[in-house]
Structure formats: C-alpha cells, structure tokens
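Bench notes, afternoon.
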Amino acid sequence: MKIYHSLEDFSPLRFGVVTSGTFDGVHVGHQKILSRLKEIADKYRGETVVITFWPHPRTILKPDEPGLKLLNTFEEKADLLRQYGVQHLLRIPFTKEFSQITSADFVTKILVEQIGTKKLVIGYDHRFGKNREGSFEQLKLNGPAFGFDVEEISRQDVDHVGVSSTKIRRALESGDIETANHFLGAPYPLTGRVIKGDKLGRVLGYPTANIDPDSKDKLIPAEGIYAVTVIHANLAYGGMLYIGSRPTVDGSKRSIEVNIFDFNKEIYGETIQVRFQKMLRSDSRFDDLESLKKQLEKDRVAALQALQST
C-alpha cells in the first residue's frame, strides 16, 4: 500500500475505485465498504483508494468540545487498511481552510482531476464538502457528467450490525472489551514505547513494561486489569496489563504497564503493541503489597484462561 501525505503527491489513476471518510477504528461497518471497494477494483482491474483526513475533522470544526479520543493512531489505521486490501491511502491534512471547500470542488478537483475516480463507494448518509452540503443524491446525479459512477452501501447493510465508532468508544471506556472487539472485528490495539518505571512489579515478582502511548489522542480503556496479547518484534506473547494510578502505593499518576508471560528481554525504548482480549477486574486498593501479590497470582491464572479461550 502506498501512503500519500498530500494531494500534490498523488498522480491520477487510470481507474480509481475510491471511498473517503475518517475510518476511525476500521470497524466491521467500514470493512463492508472496503470489501466492496476491492470487489469492484478486481472486476474492473482498477486500484483501490481510501481518502482519509488527519487530524480528525471534529477536532478542527469543534475545537471547544472536550478532546475527542481516537480508536486508532494514523499508523494503526494505515496498517488495518493495508490488511483489507487498500492499495492507495491518501491522507489529506484537515484544516479550517480545507473545511471550506465546496462539494463541487471536492468532486472536480480532488475526485476527478487529482485521483482519477471511476467508481466511488460511500456509506449511507455520507456527506462531504463545506457544511456537509454534498450528498449521495448529488453524486448520483452529477457523477456521470464527470465520468464516474457512485454506489452507496445501504443503511440496512451497515445498520444490521449495529456498529459505530461512538459505540466502540463507550464500550472501551466502560471496560466492555468483548463488545468493542466484536464491533471492531479484531482485538483493540494500543501501541507505545516502553519506558522506565519504578520497578514495583519486579519487586512483586511480576516485572512489567511501562507503556507510553504513541498518541495523546488515543483512547485508553477503563482502569483495571486485562488479559492481552503483546506484539514485540513481530512475535506474539500472552500477558496481563494494568491501567490505573496504583492506589495500593498511593500513586497519583495513571500508568499503563504489562507483565509479558514467558518473556525476559530488556526492551526499554522499543515499541510494543498490546491487543486487549478481556477485562479481568476493575482497579482496587489492597491493604498491603502481600495482598496485592496474591491477587496478581489470581490475575495471571485468569489471564491465561482468558487467552486460551480467544
């Protein structure tokens, strides 16, 4: 998959099969669109293109709203889109200036002239252009004049799975990992660099890798203990992950740390990814470190059982 960070980098294609959107999470609803995109491209020997916007448009259009937490960093999103057969990923920087582009200019200057769109696939109720003035009906009416066809993934096709990025965020924020993963079609990922901690886990017999997430805008699930899969150097390991402020030792700062099973490498400064499988319990305060250690023993057993069933 080729990634382009501006319109100027993109050369028009002979037969572009295109869709556009934020695709946060690349959930099962998005996957229906991507599947159809690839199907059309295979039929007409075209090339698939996803136009996405970064940063998320809502952060530019509604800067006074509380910070939007995203399901994917751009890198995570790109990796998922690659897995679903996207050949060209065009990342358009979303600015206030870009938000003023009319739907007519979006069609003529971007879809037609810059990309070479022959087939456009969009989700139901998809809007584009200034004030979201562009609609499927307009595209359907005017597309032939510009040399491309447009297809809408019906409301029925998407709604029957009951998925949305908002529902996934709410599930993660409440620790409902199973629901989030069901909607995503895969375990929720968190990618970050391993940083040094105070080595309390090592004292307890459960050394942990402290994770500094790649993006401050990434949504972090509810505080608690989770069974996770850990990806390091393209190898997968089981593990149990903690999110919280460590109330047993009067912690004041949230930490994200993972005990990786059957792993004893020093990986400070390296990048790992954790994939959430199941929430085991909420964060708790214990009377002393010995009580915490006994609970960690139970957590490890529970994590191993959860990982065996996934």
